[in-house]
Amino acid sequence: MAHSKKAGFNVLWLQSGGCGGCSMSLLCADTPDFYGALEAADINLLWHPSLSIESGAEALRILQSCIDGTIPLHALCVEGSLLRGPNGTGRFHMLAGTGKPMIDWVRALAAVSLHTVAVGTCAAYGGITAAGGNPTDATGLQYDGDQIGGLLGAGYRSRSGLPVINVAGCPTHPNWVLETLMALAADLFAEGQIDALGRPRFYADHLVHHGCTRNEFYEFKASAEKPSDLGCMMEHMGCKGTQVHADCNTRPWNGEGSCTRGGYACIACTEPGFEEPGHAFQVTPKIAGIPIGLPTDMPKAWFVALASLSKSATPKRVRENAVADHIVVVPAIRKTRLK
């Protein structure tokens, strides 16, 4: 999209060390007209490396105009982690045609932007790009894992006075991004609306567990034992949905899907450090048969007591369906009237 000179909320989108998956997800937003949704919210996409027609000198003029103040920059969106290597030079990622590291462009643009938004867990916390030995010295915009700092530093504030807004997810839900930008454009976003890790609370105050279609199996601790089983995936299959902050199951992708609905365990992709859990993603680590990662806010003794009671009360229907790939025992028909 060519940048417009009309008044509006100007968004500049840069991609750094990542796979581009958050942009791909954004294009799957629940609207038949992605650009129409932006226009209706008075959001002007100045430039995006994959979605805009400008390239080369034209694109660089837009970036420089934002830094110079010729074009007001209301939201700098960064997708992908920031590559500081080697030795802090940032030369592992040079912005083509500029002879200048991407991290230098990001610092300069973040200094003049009204808001700075990290799109995806890579940009927020380092993510997949920072896994392993991290030879590129990848980091998030204002966090390095769960430690505040990152590229811009703990004290960074945009011109609005807000820290970096971390729209974490791998990838992000498209509507998390759109709702964040729309709230910023409407001046309806304050610091109290981000959580302790910088994520917008409208989705981060929820757990993936909320609305999960497998909740009946969780309640009775009727667990899946292999891929494709219908049962709860917490006990044996590595699911962290009871601990992870996101509204994936009450805000399904395209109104239909989520990881757990598709038969995949929640791997905590909105959390810092999810990329290196210390175990295989499809495995639930245990001590003495008890999962190490217990549901958020639940003491271990309570969980053990609840699990024992629940398993003893599991209906035959739930127990048998949990280890099948389709419903084998249907619910009984009961009269629901009181008389």
Would you spell out the secondary-structure blueprint of this structure?
Layout: E1 9-15, H1 21-26, H2 34-40, E2 43-47, H3 56-68, E3 75-79, E4 82-83, E5 94-95, E6 100-101, H4 102-112, E7 115-119, H5 121-125, E8 138-139, E9 143-144, E10 147-148, E11 165-167, H6 174-185, H7 201-204, H8 215-219, E12 286-287, E13 290-291, H9 300-312, H10 316-322
Parallel strand pairs: 1-2, 1-3, 3-7, 7-11
Antiparallel strand pairs: 4-8, 5-6, 9-10, 12-13
Please state how the strands of the largest beta sheet are arranged side by side: 2-1-3-7-11
Mean of the pLDDT scores?
Answer: 94
Low-confidence stretches: 1-5
Q: Report the total helices.
A: 10
- Quaternary assembly: single chain
- CATH architecture group name of the largest domain: 3-Layer(aba) Sandwich
Count of folded domains? 2
Tell me what portion of residues adopts beta-strand conformation.
Answer: 5-15%
| C-alpha termini separation | 64 Å
What about the largest sheet? 5 strands, parallel
Question: What do we call the CATH homologous superfamily of the largest domain?
Answer: NADH:ubiquinone oxidoreductase-like, 20kDa subunit
The helix/strand order is EHHEHEEEEHEHEEEEHHHEEHH
Helix content: 10-25%
| Class by alpha and beta content | alpha/beta
Task: Describe this entry's structure for a reader.
- By secondary structure, this protein is an alpha/beta fold.
- It has 2 domains: 9-204, NADH:ubiquinone oxidoreductase-like, 20kDa subunit (Rossmann fold); 207-339, Cytochrome-c3 hydrogenase, C-terminal domain (Cytochrome-c3 Hydrogenase, Chain A, domain 2, Irregular).
- Helices cover 24% and strands 12% of the residues.
- The protein has helices at residues 21-26, 34-40, 56-68, 102-112, 121-125, 174-185, 201-204, 215-219, 300-312, 316-322; strands at residues 9-15, 43-47, 75-79, 82-83, 94-95, 100-101, 115-119, 138-139, 143-144, 147-148, 165-167, 286-287, 290-291.
- The strands form 5 sheets. The chain has a 5-stranded parallel beta sheet. It has a two-stranded antiparallel ribbon with strand order 4-8.
- It is elongated and about 70 Å long.
- The model is unreliable at 1-5 (pLDDT under 50).
